[in-house]
Amino acid sequence: MKTKITKINRKKPEEKIIRAAAKIIKNGGLVAFPTETVYGLGADALRAGAVKKIFEAKGRPADNPLIVHICDEKMLAAVVKEIPEKAFPLMKKFWPGPLTIIFKKKNSIPDIVTAGGNTVAVRMPAHPVALALIEKTRVPVAAPSANISTRPSPTEAKHVYEDLKGKIPLILDGGHTRIGVESTVVDLTTKIPTILRKGKITSGEIKDMIGPVLLSTEKKEGVVRSPGQKYRHYAPKAKLILVSGGSAAVKKNIRKYPKNRVCVITFTERKDLYMKAYKTFIFGKRNDPLRAARSFFSLLRKCDEKNADVIIVETPPKNGVGDALIDRISRAAS
């Protein structure tokens, strides 16, 4: 299969390009497209055969559920059994946006989408290309990140191409994604709403809207309700080490690997401290966790391009999206 990359206007998507992409999805095929978080790999969420192609292209385990993307609340009603009261303030505040909500699913959603569970993860992306594509297909679109499973999530079209060349027909290139880490996931089917995956939208922001929330502990067995709960994710080819404790701790870890190609990912303020490293990559300024999150997955891929044996990542501040970034780094290193 030949994979085509088509440039698309990220603010005003061209009708002709959207129509062609929607036709592929309506015919049971796959299309990679940008969202505000990462690039997604989309298929018709109502057709099990189409969704199966996502798992085949990514090498994704069948017990890892997908997120269903919608363009309006009318489409939501076609996917979920009921909308809990606490969902309405969250949808009003954060949709379109990087928040995924877990609902009880309707039978219209095939079991392959939910890994056999009775709940479905749903979000409305805040990206003109994604919204236009879903609206034109007129069906909910199941879409995990558009990468090989376990690999760093794609924040640019070229990342998708690196992983899925020859496996999908079309990639819509809308440039670099704005946020760079996947959506926050909150489960509203539990007695107390539970955050299953951290993202740009924090637990504090959710709590301000609906009251008390819990943070899920890691699940290793049984049916899971959200992606990112069961398997190693976001991993580069090299060994990844997350280091806290400042520059002294980073230098100590560099010295542990004298015969290896060691790449360091750090902050602008410390870019000159690690001269003994094979290569140093910069998140941005330490007080800008959003920029760090936006660049992280791309930097992991650059380390792979340098054939790094070891990647040392300096811990970002644990505030806002920085907390989600630490979660992603930890999973990549696990």
What would the keywords be for this entry?
334 residues, 2 domains, eleven-stranded mixed sheet, 15 strands, DHBP synthase, Rossmann fold, alpha/beta
Could you explain the architecture of this structure?
This protein is α/β, with parallel strands linked by helices and 334 residues long. The protein folds into two domains: 4-215, DHBP synthase (Alpha-Beta Complex); 239-333, Rossmann fold (3-Layer(aba) Sandwich), CATH 3.40.50.11030. The chain has eleven helices and 15 strands. The strands form two sheets. The protein has an eleven-stranded mixed β-sheet with strand order 1-8-2-3-7-4-6-5-9-10-11, with helices on both faces. A four-stranded parallel β-sheet has the order 12-15-13-14, with helices on both faces. The mean pLDDT is 94.
Summarize the structure.
The protein is α/β, with parallel strands linked by helices and 334 residues long.
Helix/strand layout:
Elements lengths: L3 E4 L7 H12 L4 E4 L4 E6 L3 H11 L8 E3 L3 H5 L9 H8 L4 E6 L6 H4 L4 E5 L4 H10 L3 E2 L14 H8 L5 E4 L10 E4 L6 E4 L5 H8 L3 E2 L23 E5 L3 H9 L6 E5 L12 E4 L6 H17 L4 E5 L6 H13 L1
Parallel strand pairs: 1-8, 2-8, 4-6, 5-9, 10-11, 12-15, 13-14, 13-15
Antiparallel strand pairs: 2-3, 3-7, 4-7, 5-6, 9-10
Helix pairs in contact: 1-6, 10-11
